[in-house]
Specification:
α2 packs parallel to α3 (92-103) and α8 runs parallel beside α9 (293-303). It is built from 12 helices and 19 strands. The strands form 3 sheets. Strands 11-12-18-17-16-13-14-15-19 form a 9-stranded mixed sheet, sandwiched between helices. Strands 2-1-10-8-7-3-5-6 form an 8-stranded mixed sheet, with helices on both faces. It is globular, with a radius of gyration of 21 Å. The termini are far apart. It has helices at 12-24, 61-71, 92-103, 117-127, 140-143, 169-173, 185-203, 257-266, 293-303, 319-329, 376-380, 395-405, and strands at residues 41-46, 59-60, 75-80, 83-84, 107-113, 133-138, 151-155, 159-163, 167-168, 177-183, 229-233, 236-245, 271-276, 307-313, 334-339, 358-362, 366-370, 384-390, 410-412. The protein has one domain (38-415): Endonuclease, Chain A.
Length: 424
């Protein structure tokens, strides 16, 4: 079986033969569930009001979610860090659509993080008595010290959204976000299996959760690094697979995020572009120390002559994280910039008007879009998810990045002057 990251580009026929061989080793009936037709794939952005963020040919978050909810025939599974929407907020049409579909017989399951219920409680209270909607809280803090930071929706085991967008009115209206909608049966079944795994963990006593890596594989071929889905797009196919964190809470048959992301960065020949809210090799929200998995891959790429461009949010420019970013910026071949989203015309909005996307693109060929920031806790103690894309489908990430890099909201890190009280 070819590695997802192998070069030259893998031909779709080779992958199909590989899947056929893999399917022959599985229980009877599994092969019928592998993909046989091209699957739709859509890049999705949230655009802060009053800004020029967003490519004209990317979809927008709220209409995408509404379309998925409207198309549901059996069930809707949502795993979200939290749920937040004031009366009349931008998320209201989405919540109303969930309630309406549940009344029509669609099963709606909502999994949220227990430690962030102070943010979710008002919206949860409004939904808890709704017909057909079941809500569970996931106490990740009690298991690994992290949170349920993932943001994905899976519909009918065939339609998936995953990206940086929280289920928050601000993520629709006042934050720059990037995500993907992919409609493909094996990808949908993989996310459904992941959701059912997390859903079951949330209902078990704490001592049962340590068995997560030993969960037996499903009856179908899950989408993984060694068995990605194939999407035919014009001149050449693309391959896509999901990855999940943390390894301690994931079945062993799923791909783990951090090693796959480091491997992707290691494949760079010419250029790496990274856009993420925060980036640091200094451990946070847990034991202090150095985490080298991504840091070493970034520095090694620059050392072998790869051009590395990084955009972080202005929220990242504080304390030790600022010092770390400066250590990257002094290396030959690495340029770090930061983005500042202008305030809304209505005035300051707490926890909004920020660059919140989490993606990377290598050589216009390998792409990554995830739900976590790039530091130790998001990969090692926090529940997150991502998609890896190899082929033409990754290219829009480069256009999103280049638009922001040269746009009015991004400045060189060297231009940042810390406020006197930050100690930065």
């Amino acid at each position: 079986m070819h590695s997802f990251f192998a070069r030259p580009h893998v031909h779709a026929r080779s992958l199909a033969l590989g899947f056929a061989l893999l399917a022959s080793l599985l229980p009877l009936g599994s092969a019928a569930k592998t993909p046989v037709t091209p699957a739709p794939f859509t890049w999705v952005e949230s655009v802060p009001e009053g800004t020029n963020y967003g490519l004209p040919d990317t979809a927008r978050t709220a209409p995408t979610w509404l379309s998925m909810i409207h198309d549901a025939k059996d069930h809707i599974d949502i795993a979200a860090f939290y749920l937040s929407n004031p009366p009349g907020g931008a998320l209201a049409p989405v919540i109303d659509a969930l309630v309406a579909r549940a009344k029509q017989g669609i099963k709606v399951n909502l999994l949220v993080d227990s430690s962030f219920m102070h943010e979710s409680q008002p919206a949860i209270d409004a939904l808890k008595d709704a017909q057909g909607i079941t809500i569970r809280q996931m106490p990740v803090k009690d298991i690994t010290g992290g949170v349920l930071h993932v943001k994905f929706m899976e519909v009918d085991g065939r339609d998936v959204f995953v990206g940086s967008q929280n289920w928050d009115w601000r993520a629709i209206q006042h934050i720059h976000e990037v995500g993907v909608r992919i409609t493909e049966p094996r990808m949908g079944a993989t996310f459904q299996a992941e959701f059912e795994h997390l859903w079951a963990l949330a209902a078990k006593p704490s001592d049962a959760r340590i068995a997560a890596p030993r969960v037996p594989p499903p009856a179908f071929v899950p989408a993984t690094e060694l068995a990605p889905v194939v999407i035919n797009t014009g001149d050449a196919p693309s391959t896509v697979f999901p990855a999940f964190s943390p390894a301690a809470m994931q079945p062993a048959w799923l791909t783990t995020e951090a090693p796959a992301l480091a491997k992707m960065l290691d494949q760079a020949h010419d250029r790496i572009r990274i856009q993420v809210m925060t980036l640091s090799a200094l451990k946070d929200f847990g034991p202090k120390g150095y985490w080298g998995t991504l840091d070493l891959a970034i520095r090694a790429a620059a050392a072998r002559g790869v051009k590395v461009q990084i955009i972080v949010a202005d929220w990242a420019l504080r304390g030790n994280d600022l010092a770390y970013l400066r250590s990257l910026a002094v290396m030959p071949g690495i340029e770090v910039r930061y983005s500042t989203v202008p305030q809304a015309a209505s005035g300051p909005i707490p926890y909004a008007r920020v660059e919140h996307a989490k993606y990377a693109i290598v050589d216009d060929e390998l792409g990554f879009v995830g739900t976590g920031n790039w530091s130790w806790s998001y990969f090692e103690s926090t529940v997150d998810a991502s998609l890896f894309i190899h082929g033409p489908l990754a290219k829009p990430l480069g256009r999103i990045f280049d638009t922001d890099w040269s746009g009015p909201y991004v400045k060189p890190l060297s231009a940042f002057v810390p406020p006197a009280n930050t100690g930065g």
